[in-house]
Write a structure and sequence with these properties.
Strand order of the largest sheet of chain A: 6-7-8-3-9-10
Oligomer: heterotrimer
Number of helices of chain A: 8
Largest sheet of chain A: 6 strands, mixed
Number of strands of chain B: 0
Shape of chain A: elongated
Distance between the termini of chain B: 49 Å
Helix content of chain B: over 70%
Order of helices and strands of chain B: HHHHHHHHHHH
Order of helices and strands of chain A: EEEHEEEHHHEHEHEEHHEEEEEEEEEE
Chains: A alpha+beta (367), B mainly alpha (273), C mainly alpha (282)
Number of helices of chain B: 11
Largest interface: B-C, 82 and 86 residues
Strand content of chain B: under 5%
Helix content of chain A: 10-25%
Largest sheet of chain B: none
Shape of chain B: globular
Structural class of chain B: mainly alpha
Radius of gyration of chain A: 24 Å
Distance between the termini of chain A: 43 Å
Strand content of chain A: 25-35%
Chain lengths: 367, 273, 282
């Protein structure tokens, strides 16, 4: 099946894919199970060759969205378009989309080789082509030696690779991965993250990766789509979403942050006993201040920095860094990240630049 | 959207097939019940002259009631024997290692699938050689032996579902093996034991293949009916069959509800934890 | 397991019982097959191979065995054809009603064998319900003879009795199949029909083998249905054994045939166990 040309831009604009051509357009997809609303009006574009992560807590709807793209669920309303054709009217076996399942779903009665060849044999490809493509795929995931084994004879990490090969061998236009690394232990997980990323670059296929682990999302993705209670909070690159979170939820979900509630009057923010200049409009405002942007004051305070004094409550050692909880004036608590090995006690002087206090929106109330 | 259309067609066919098979399974019984009220006898269509006469005849039939009493005695005794032996057998198979375990397992489970004639005849030869007179006792021994496998399979299944860590927790808290068995293992097996008991009782009540060879002077209900069948059929047999069917139905409904209630309680219990 | 005392108390009683009432009787049956019956109708404990010679030489026994196997094979086949789609429907299409419908399958099992065989006898006879119904609606003008007292009647009745036995293990096997395997198959491009033959059916084979074995073995050894409904053309091997222990009084010969049946059944069980193991993957 040949890839179709880029669509005429008459479809409504979703969240743009940032320059690259759009492969999959998710348009106002909503899904309810009975009275339970799981997804509300999701619109998103996925570019060719990009690594997009759908990030969210359990219950956020991320797996449901993935299953709708794969074809295992029908959306209650909305449309899916892929390469200019309506996708959601097709059953899963007629979509050029393949899935790596959370628990791999390898066929227990078939060998590794037969598992990987499954999609090709079902499509009745000539046997010579099947053999060649399968051995290529197995080689890519480094499972060639295990080809004649059955799934009961290989480990979890190996099964995950086979699931990957089984999906990729069909050269889908889009690969969906449903929390594929969640069953692996921490070290294996980190290793697989790197391998997956380089594999994706190598094959050049768009990956849509679902996870609840924000670190994982940041390590692997070109873009992150953060989903909360069935709605998209923010869609941006990892750097962008980290340094410029749009809402309080995003700021808190991704990495650590200090949320400062202040009042703005004529260009000046008041937060407790502190103030600094801000271009936000008058009224109550919320700011996100990352722990690593709070420094210890040197002997001479920097120009323009906000000075804070406080008492150390607790220090947590994280290897390369330390997270320190500091109680400041009027009961305000700040979390500070410093290079490891700080042996401070008691009173401490801190400072931060006003520019690092990023204004964020309050997240809307949702059930 | 052809995929959806073929799916619909497929599920319609399956539904039709399922309904047809259910009809095949239940229609003969329905006919049987219907004709127990037929004044003209067991054949002929359509039935007319509907009457309760055959039930009245049945009620007055002393031989039938004697055989019912015999059957109940046998069934209760067989239940006791099978459970008393089947439970330890299940425990042994689940937990113990001993020489000959594989042979033991096969022997215990064999009567489940072996045609009753072989079980019955082999026991007959035993009784003949030991000069044991055939009577209700020999039937009890026969049923008990044949139905141990039912008790064993049910209790074994229950043991598999048992959470081993519960027993470990009991031992950890100071209870010894016997106490753990009585306080933890046995209560968890309650459902399996009751299920096995009901099944054994029912199977014994209508067991005929093994009983055929071990019968003495006193008849069990199935053999009493069998004897009459050889002599000629009357709707009285339909009547007694209908009553047997109703009893079986009641038993299984009771069992179903008991199971639902116990499982609901179990879920509740685990929520409270 | 646990303490020695616990173990002995638990394993001894069933072990003893099973030895006395299962193992010993089979051994006795083995012995009986080598004895013979004297002219005065007593059993003579002289060891010889006469019974086995008789079985091999006289065709009547072979014919009965083959006829029995043919009947058993047909019962097995029809039970599977009726039972598999129903089990499939129950597992994949029944939704909320699954448990209830499952109970409906089990209920006939709890109803007496005799009751069900008797029901068919009253239905299939020349004055029976089916024949009179057919004549009543003018589909036939006189009773159909083959319905009763024929192998047809035996096959029909035994199929009726053993279909639920076949449904249960197939249903259990189908329930065991993780649903994500089916999604994976669809995801990889296989249509529902292809998914059935490549994924669902292979994984249900252990259940099919178990159900088929039940139906075949139990039909093979059945003697009640032939007595009630088989007529002279429907005599099965067990009927011969029954008469040898009854009117024809030749226990040793009967024991020889029974032993043969036991061996056949045990071999079939071994075979089906091997097949089930080969086709189960966990």
């Amino acid at each position: 099946m040949a890839l179709l040309d880029n669509p005429v831009a008459t479809e409504p604009a979703g969240v743009r894919s940032g320059g690259k051509s759009a492969l999959l357009k998710i348009q106002e997809i909503a899904k309810s199970f009975g009275r339970n609303v799981v997804l509300r009006d999701i619109s998103l574009e996925i570019a060719e060759g990009e690594f997009l992560t759908i990030l969210g807590e359990s219950g956020s709807g991320k797996t449901t969205l993935l299953r709708i793209i794969a074809g295992f669920e029908k959306a209650t309303s909305g449309e899916l378009w892929m390469a200019g054709e309506r996708l959601d009217h097709r059953p899963p076996y007629r979509r050029r989309v393949n899935t790596v399942f959370q628990h791999y779903a390898l066929f227990p009665h078939l060998t590794v080789e037969q598992n990987v060849a499954y999609g090709l044999r079902v499509a009745r490809r000539p046997e010579a082509e099947v053999k060649q493509r399968v051995s290529e795929a197995l080689d890519k995931v480094k499972m060639t030696a295990h080809a004649p084994k059955k799934p009961s004879q290989i480990s979890g990490g190996q099964a995950q690779r086979v699931a990957l090969a089984r999906a990729l061998v069909n050269r889908p236009q889009l690969l969906l991965l449903d929390e594929p690394l969640s069953a692996l232990d921490a070290n294996l997980r980190r290793q697989m993250q790197v391998e997956l990323k380089s594999l994706q670059r190598e094959v050049g296929i768009a990956f849509v990766f679902v996870t609840h682990d924000q670190e994982e999302a940041m390590v692997m993705s070109d873009r992150i789509a953060l989903l909360r209670s069935g709605e998209l909070e923010q869609v941006a690159s990892p750097r962008e979403i980290y340094s410029h979170p749009e809402t309080a939820y995003v700021a808190q979900f991704i990495g650590h942050t200090n949320l400062l509630k202040g009042e703005v009057h004529s260009g000046v923010v008041r937060y407790g006993a502190f103030s600094w200049p801000s271009s936000s409009p008058d009224g109550p405002a919320l700011f996100s201040l990352r722990p690593e942007h709070i420094r210890l004051s040197g002997s001479s305070p920097s120009v323009g920095a906000v000075q804070v004094r406080g008492r150390i409550l607790h220090q947590a050692f994280h290897g390369a860094t330390e997270l320190i909880r500091v109680e400041c004036d009027a009961g305000l608590i700040l979390v500070v990240r410093t290079a490891g090995g700080l042996n401070a006690q008691g009173e401490i002087s801190l400072e931060f630049s006003p520019a690092d206090a990023v204004p964020v929106r309050q997240s809307s109330e949702r059930n | 959207m052809s995929a959806g259309a073929t799916n619909k067609a497929r599920s319609s066919w399956l539904l039709f097939h399922a309904a047809a098979v259910f009809a095949f399974l239940y229609l003969p019984i329905a006919v049987l019940i219907l004709y127990s009220f037929n004044g003209q006898g067991v054949g002929g269509f359509p039935p007319h002259n509907l009457t309760l006469d055959w039930y009245r005849t049945l009620f007055d039939d002393g031989a039938i009631w004697d055989s019912v009493l015999n059957s109940v005695q046998v069934a209760l005794a067989a239940m006791a024997v099978s459970l008393a032996l089947g439970m330890p057998a299940a425990l042994a198979l689940d937990r113990a290692q001993f020489p000959g375990k594989a042979l033991f397992r096969r022997l215990v489970l064999l009567p489940l699938i072996l045609p009753g004639i072989i079980t019955g005849l082999s026991l007959l030869m035993l009784f003949k050689l030991t000069n044991t007179k055939l009577s209700l006792l020999t039937i009890i021994l026969g049923h008990g032996t044949a139905l141990i496998s039912v008790a064993t399979t049910e209790v074994f299944a229950g043991l598999q579902k048992l959470d081993r860590t519960q027993e470990e927790a009991s031992l950890d808290l100071g209870a010894n093996y016997w106490q753990t068995f009585w306080r933890i293992t046995l209560p968890n097996l309650k459902l399996s034991i009751i299920g096995a008991a009901l099944l054994i009782f029912t199977l014994s009540m209508d067991e005929i293949a093994v009983s055929f060879f071990l019968i003495g002077r006193d008849n069990t209900l199935p053999l009493e009916i069998w004897g009459r069948l050889r002599r000629g059929i009357t709707p009285e047999i339909n009547a007694v069959s209908t009553i047997i069917f109703l009893f079986s139905l009641l038993t299984i409904v009771f069992w179903y509800r008991l199971r639902l209630r116990t499982e609901a309680n179990a879920d509740l219990g685990s929520e409270l934890l | 397991m646990f303490s020695r005392a616990y173990r002995t108390v638990v394993t001894a009683p069933p072990l003893v019982w099973v030895t006395v009432f299962l193992l010993v009787p089979y051994v006795l049956m083995f012995c009986y097959s080598f004895w013979s019956v004297s002219l005065s109708q007593t059993i003579v404990h002289s060891w010889n191979l006469d019974n086995y010679k008789e079985l091999i030489e006289k065709p009547v026994y072979w014919q009965a065995l083959l006829r029995s196997m043919w009947i058993a094979a047909r019962v097995m086949l029809f039970s599977l054809l009726l039972g598999y789609p129903l089990a499939y429907f129950l597992s994949f299409y029944a939704g909320k009603r699954k448990d209830l419908l499952y109970q409906l399958v089990i209920i006939p099992l709890w109803v007496s064998y005799l009751v069900r065989a008797y029901a068919w006898k009253t239905i299939l006879g020349s004055d029976g319900v089916l024949n009179t119904l057919l004549q009543y609606v003018h589909l036939t003008s006189h009773p159909l003879d083959f319905l009763l007292y024929s192998p047809f009647a035996v096959v029909l009745t035994l199929t009726h009795i053993y279909t639920p036995f076949t449904i249960l293990p197939i249903y259990a096997a189908l329930e065991h199949i993780p649903r994500n395997l089916i999604e994976a198959s669809h995801d990889l491009g296989a249509t529902p029909v292809q998914t059935f033959w490549k994924v669902i059916f292979p994984l249900s084979i252990p259940g099919v083998v178990a159900g088929a074995t039940f139906a075949f073995v139990l039909s093979l050894g059945d003697f009640l249905a032939p007595l009630l409904l088989g007529g002279p053309s429907g005599i099965m091997i067990s009927n011969i054994v029954v008469s040898l222990f009854g009117a024809a009084y030749n226990w040793p010969l009967g024991a020889a045939i029974s032993l043969g049946m036991l061996l056949v059944v045990v071999s079939l069980l071994f075979l089906s166990e091997r097949l089930e193991k080969k086709w189960s993957f966990s």
